[in-house]
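FORM 7B - TANDEM STRUCTURE REPORT

SECTION 1: FIRST PROTEIN
SEQUENCE AND TOKENS:
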Amino acid sequence: MANPQIETVSTGADKAKLAVAGLLVVGAVVAFYLLGKQDMWVRVVALLVLLAMAVGTFFTSESGKQLIAFGQDSVKEVKKVVWPTRKEAGQMTLYVFAFVVVMALFLWLTDKTLEWVLYDLILGWKR
């Protein structure tokens, strides 16, 4: 059995970028609480600026670039999908509802039949 490949951060620069991004996130939260005596808008601006810097740093790393490429590939694939028309979607919904009703009736009938066989015929219990 083959072991799946595990992708890791390959270079020291990428590791540093990810570490800086993590420190910026922690710094954003710490700054928000250290600025507790300031107006709320100052605290929120500081939080958002530091978080934006963390996101920007992350997206310059190899992991961030791979995430962006994955998102772009996903958008391309979604554009290839042939979506059903409104009429087709409505018809399929009705088919599903009809199947659910038929299955519910079948299961109810099966349950009642087994109940009758077990309790009335085999055990002889009368309700």
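SECTION 2: SECOND PROTEIN
SEQUENCE AND TOKENS:
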Amino acid sequence: MTRAETDPGAVTDLFVTEPVADRERDLLIRAREAGVRTALVTEKAIAGLTDTVHPQGLVLVCRQPDAELPPAPRLVAVLVDVADPGNAGTVIRTADAAGADAVLLLGDSVDPYNPKCVRASMGSLFHLPVLRERDPDAGFSRLRAAGLGLVVADGGGETVLGPGTDDLLAAPTAWILGSEAHGVPAEVAAQADHRVRVPIRGRAESLNLATAAAVCLYASVRAQSAWARETQAATPVEGPR
């Protein structure tokens, strides 16, 4: 069997217009060598396969991988009832950039394979596990079972994100984020271990979801990196015997 037939999430089909095929000959060669089925199609056919105004002349069909939380995760981004595909895709991209171990979409969140979400993720959808769970309670149980603490990003949170949260964020953490319009539902936020707010120094009413996610995730990255350095420095090194 070819790699395209056995690799979950692999590309299985490639549709391309003739101008793009002439320009991207190496891509087509590599695709065929990997066992990907390729087909030359018209501009009209490509337009029917996509929902963009100006298609780029190339469409890939991929298998959806069976995503699972990796062993001993340290950082996970959780979206609750985030229906906007652009926001969800951008958070997936941000989580990937921050080195998060996974993204979990809970409740009535958008399908991560929505075309707009895929485009907004800029490929990051295929770089890390992206999981879906309709029931928030079940999702939280999975996160706790993996050893993660649950931290809600909440504009009304009792704890202010900053140097005082370093010890909290040094531990394995799942950041829970809600929609821009409604935030995390109160009954969901109540199940978290901590509610943390990002301080706003100016007159802005709030941050958009992707910006808040970036601030929170990178705060965890900084805290966990500092903890790792301190732990390494405190570990005694045996000299030669």
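SECTION 3: OBSERVATIONS ON SECOND PROTEIN
The CA atoms of residues 38 and 171 lie 47 Å apart.
The first strand starts at residue 11 and ends at 16.

SECTION 4: SIGNATURE
Preparer initials: ____
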